Predict the structure.
Amino acid sequence: MSQKFRLESGGLINRDKPVTFSFNGHELKGYDGDTLASALIANGVHLVGRSFKYHRPRGIMSAGPEEANALLQLGEGAYTEPNARATMEELFDGLVATTSNAFPTVKYDIGEVNSLFSKIFVSGFYYKTFMWPSKAWKFYEHFIRKAAGIGKAPEEHDPDFYDKTNAFCDVLVVGGGPAGLSAALSAAATGAHVTLVDDQPRFGGSLMAQSGQEIDGKPALEWVDEAEAKLHDLDNVQVLRRATAFAYYDHNYVGIWERLTDHLPVKPEGLPRHRVHMMRAKQVIIASGAIERPLVFCDNDRPGIMLASACRTYVNRFGAKPGNKGVIFTNNDSAYATVLDLIDAGIEIKAVVDVRKDPLGPLMEKADAAGVKILTNSAVVGTSGRLHLKSVEVAELSDDGETAKSDVTEIACDFLGSSGGWNPTVHLHCQAGGKLDFDEERGAFVPAPSNRTNPNISVGSCKGAFGLADCLAQGFEAGQEAAKAAGIKFRKSGKAPTAEAVDEGNRRLLWLVPGKKPLGQSGKHFIDLQNDSTAADLQLALREGYRSIEHVKRYTTTGMATDQGKTANVNALAIVAQTLNEAIPTVGTTTYRPPYVPVTFGAIAGRDIDDLLDPARTTPMHSWHVNAGAEFEDVGQWKRAWYFPQPGEDMHAAVNREVAAMRNSVGILDATTLGKIDVKGKDAAEFLNRVYTNAWTKLGIGKCRYGLMLGEDGMVMDDGVTSRIAEDHFLMTTTTGNAAPVLGHLEDYLQTEWTDLEVYLTSVTEQWATASIAGPNARALLSELTDDIDLSNEALPFMAWTPGTVAGIPARVFRISFTGDLSYEIAVPADYGLALWQALMTAGSKYDITPYGTETMHVLRAEKGFIIVGQDTDGSITPVDLNMNWIVSKKKGDFIGKRSLDREDMSDPNRKQLVGILTDDPKEVLPEGAQLVEVVKDKPPMDMVGWVSSSYWSPNCDRSIAMALVHGGLKKMGQKLYSPQADGRVIECTITDTVFYDKEGNRQNG
Amino acid sequence: MKNRYSIFSLIRNAFSYHQEWPPAWRSPEPKKSYDAVIVGGGGHGLATAYYLAKNHGMTNIAVLEKGWLGGGNTARNTTIIRSNYLWDESAKLYEHSVKLWEGLSQELNYNVMFSQRGVLNLAHNQHDLRELSRRINANRLNGVDSEFLNPEEVKKFCPAIDLRGGGRYPVLGASLQRRGGTARHDAVAWGYARAADELGVDVIQNCPVLGFESHADGSITINSGKGPIKAGKVGLVVAGHSSVIADMAGFRLPTESRPLQALVSEPMKPCIDTVVMSNAVHAYISQSDKGELVIGAGADAYISYGQKGSGHQTEHTLAAICEMFPQFRRVKMMRQWGGIVDTNPDASPIISKTPVANMFINCGWGTGGFKGTPGSGWTFADLIASGEPDDMNAPFKLDRFKTGYLVDEHGAAAVAH
Amino acid sequence: MLLIECPHCGPRAETEYAGCSEAHIARPESGGLDMTDAEWVEWVFWRKNTKGVYLERWNHAAGCRRWINCMRDTVTNEILATYKAGEKPPKIADAEREYKF
């Protein structure tokens, strides 16, 4: 098929660059500069899809982002994209498009059977049926879901990548039509940093669709080119094409979606597919234009029925004919511009059907003078043609416009352009919180004047100024105003570009065009083409009591399709207002929400994926662990070595080996990830007194102490060892995951509550690397690597620390233990972490030093009954619940959490308390998270008395050990409990205390 | 029911071109006085009125709604229903709710499209796995269906998911509640409104409450946009404005109101047949019957009554979705919005008497509100009718913050909040 | 995303801040030790949650790390003022938008 509907000349297409593409398997030709829609139209293809509900044949109905019908599947395999609007996709060589919602073909679609049931398939249908039998909904739903949806989601990993950037400017101008260009030029002339965005590949906006316009005495598009060149040359101007401002958030934060490669036949390596610019603008000028409103008439959905302005766009911009003989149906003068341009292009206009009784307007007069047949006070009352429009029926209107006279004339035609006036594109204005006024004369919502919370400025047709002269003047003025508001100092100069002012003529707002029969009895008046909602559906909703515009929207799904009601909403609410006999502004609009057009997930996610979604933190020794074959676990943001399996070992075997090696000789753990906060200042000890439950004033220099930190609610929030470096200097450690929250918590109190305390906090987590060596040979090993530290029990007892040199590296050596064995934590400046580790491994080889990971650490600490905050606590556990009364100072006054511990339910002896649990069968390891009951019943529900927080196989005890939080557990020592498992087994166990190994503590103190 | 909905009534009405359908509910003017008035015409308020009428025979009651029925969070949530909560108190409440959901379409003769497609809660690290196990075991012993799936089983149940999670958030397992799923949010409000209206409840829209006046006899006068209305008892169920109405009534709450965000994609053919939730990355996803991916995001840090959200929450959530479902990167976001989520310090609701005699409040459901709708209405009706708490709502009393007996789903659970 | 003017650093994106909560509710000097349970939990848990002009505090966590105060309308999100911790909220000219203490 050649391009039978391509005009001989004209249009902004490059006829020297033909392009081949495929639609539903047919190879077609178009030109560079076409959209997919214009190329299809040039090839005479209107039928592109099927409607959502009734599967009615549908054709291209617009030439812009408002397209409701032509949603096609683009590309194949991993590159496929659902629901692409043919009107916005630039044509390129090799483009592959297919119809979305039809099977087996768009011409013969099995779903069309739905049309037969359309009489019962009205709004509310699903709410009223499929309730019998009671369990059958899932069965019905399966088929309903299959029939729903439009395109197919890709099934493969997206091979493209996306970019996102934060940006700033003084003045953001949205829209590169005459108003936007005029605004950008005047703002740029002040020296302001200006960003101009437009969703098309070239500027000009509506001018591209028009003919004969002049600006400053030049052909309009020439002026556009000059303006663009001027902006291009300015360093203070950024220009983005193929970029849609899709969201306007608080405080002038605007999302801009730029498409970089979609239009290219070969995608350049290294270029992202899309880029989102999150723009923080000082001032925003919205020049987003207007969208034509279709007239709502009977059977207004056949392929070939389009917006009048779309017909004009296809002819003027793309040199493509919407058909050979057409009818234009209008209520205003602007559609006559289409009539004139189409006649110029040699297209036969069979008639203009004008609902106005006495149409006025310069364009109408021209058409009249040209001999165009104009049927006034008339309406299209019916259409025919299954797969393409064949004819329309026209009748004269009654005086009130509510009915049509019975005398009907049939006019054969292959396209119809309809115009019901224009809706300013107020989306961004409203997203920003702007209010709307209703322009009674034009039947359109226009932006209310800007105010303090919504300071943006709308100009041009998005403000309801449809004349070119007004657009240019408003843009110019807004550009200067915005620059001034952005704080740019300049002297007003230059003058606004000018164009001839044109009279808009008169209008007759006929929201619902009558058909031959009463509404709903024959044919359908579609409001929302994509969701198949009709005027009769709206009235049904109102009849059934769904009167709020939001109820009507939701009950009928009007405006809920991918175009979000760009052509449907105002018609719908006007018809609702008319039916309720209320004023249109009283009915109000539904809420405009982002995005203005659908935006790819990938672009919004940008680079925040894979490794950058949440960057992983690794220690200086990480590479060593990787080389040693460690398995890792994620703890907070950190990658921690979990265990170090040797060939053939599973985790169980590896952990058993690691545990035994530590208790028998020496093990080494990377403890770098623990949070470290340097606490300095003359009031540091007092500060610790207030943030920990125990007392700190008397802690000696060189000594370490364990502390529990509570929230104001009295619940345990963190724990760790803090060491005194000097009289006014401490080093606090926190749990790995809590380092940042704890620092924030401490800073909060220092800055806002205890401003009299002189304390300085510094996070030093990243500054120190820590290797912890533990086991009976730890001292011997360390003594080989230091000659300036006395490691004797007297000089460096348990819970003491000392500075010194280890393996030639300046170090702090802490004799603290999370394993219950003789243990040293050696901290060195982070850059030396790996060197320290390697030195310890080398020197330790004679002791068979064994690296161990977090799992072994967990077993070792559980053998000693040491808790892990976040595992053995859950935000609802107090120190008392942990049986750690000893650490809650009774002597000191206030500390964070103290008062809450005195609340009534806190002393309830039946609170959950931490206890040890031994299974009756020593070989049985309780699953962590297992629940415990006192009485086993045949089936749930059963009363639970507690749950297992920690549970391991203990090689040193040669049996399983566990800790649990049990209601009143501390008073229940020796009592039997039962743990019913998912597989029906019941594990029997007994409550005990929490220290399972070396109860006297000889090993760590030795 | 006067006008039962069924395929037969649809066919019958088709013959009269659907001109004869009666209104789903009346639009009455308020009477001078009622035995009880429910303030708030969302799902919870309408359900409360319905159960007051149905379970307690209180039919001289009214629901006052300042805007349109179901116009608050009922209209703005991600429609997920489940009862796999950790604590016994929560599990009991939500499980009762799920049981009511299971027969709700028939009970109301209004298809609320409760679709039990299962809810997966993903675990991405060892900590998540432990929490998951704790919750699954607790669910099971509370009689709530809940099971553990290993990664292979997760993949089988939801083939669309990428177990690698971009390497950063691998799927190590999941809990599955098969009886969980989604429902059609608007239909719940409409169904309860119609059924309550049928039982004689006056459902009054566009009727804001301006203030309260307590009388010596225990009754309360509500100053409304449609004049004074006397009530024997008043139930406040105004999620998103709980603190505002409490302020009007003269008492205070620990509640804070934040924007909670959600979004939908364009409609597509079925590509994900269950509900997937990941707490760690703050993203929930399911596919509606229309074919849209319905995605829940996190709450903003600040208090706001603006019913809109910040862009960065959406950015973060979509990044997480693109990790779990890398094929969806080419899918497009169609609409985003925000609801106002009222949250209490322990992330559990308040269903309680108030310092004002004969005034009751139900608020602070956090993200649990939609799923809790029937159970909330049921138990709040019990509380209002009897005037005293019972087993189900007693743990959710207002003075728990004073005594310290919190139901801390927030602190404890690997369940999303 | 809000744009919050840090009194120390200048205008910064909301994502640089953390820990938004009600401002000007000082911790009782005694730590509540002389208070009843009801008085104490009032401070710990009860919040104004105002619809309208609200005084809140933010931590400029990814900036100067200082806590700052912010006067914001919770309906429109308009920020009327920001000021340093410890300072009194400034007077706002617009009487209708007066905050309630």
